[in-house]
Design goal:
The chain contains 2 helices and 6 strands. It has about 130 residues and is of the alpha+beta class. The longest helix has 23 residues.
Length: about 130
């Protein structure tokens, strides 16, 4: 039997006690737009957001025409209240005909930690405004 290879991706989730999934999705969309992303797909009902923004090439190939950083965020309501937010970042390089030439999962912990901290902060600020 072969051992499973463990991924070394950084922490990609944060639990937000007291936050509704719909409010978290709204905060995620607002944050991504503020950071220059274009929202490709989103659904508050399904707790799903997909967005992209232009980026530097992720591979060393010379024939790269363009590159994007894509983020997919899933938001799930917790049984005991609050929600869980999970983000996954992937770099995509495209050749001149628009075909994906390279995919590179983002493994920089600072990317995930920074994004999730900003979501926590934004959601906390939004909840404070609603409660006042």
């Amino acid at each position: 039997m072969r051992a499973r290879r463990q991924s070394h991706l950084p922490k990609q989730t944060v639990t937000l006690p007291g936050a509704s999934a719909k409010k978290a999705v709204s905060c995620v969309i607002a944050r991504l737009k503020e950071e220059g992303y274009t929202i490709s797909t989103s659904s508050e009902e399904l707790g799903f957001v997909n967005a992209t923004r232009q980026a530097k090439p992720f591979s060393d190939e010379e024939e790269i025409a363009s590159s994007v950083l894509e983020v997919t965020v899933h938001v799930k309501e917790c049984e005991r209240g609050g929600c869980i937010v999970k983000a996954h970042f992937v770099g995509k390089d495209f050749d001149s005909s628009g075909i994906v030439a390279a995919l590179q999962p983002v493994q920089d912990a600072e990317v995930y930690e920074g994004f999730l901290e900003r979501i926590e902060r934004d959601l906390g600020a939004a909840q404070t405004v609603v409660q006042e």
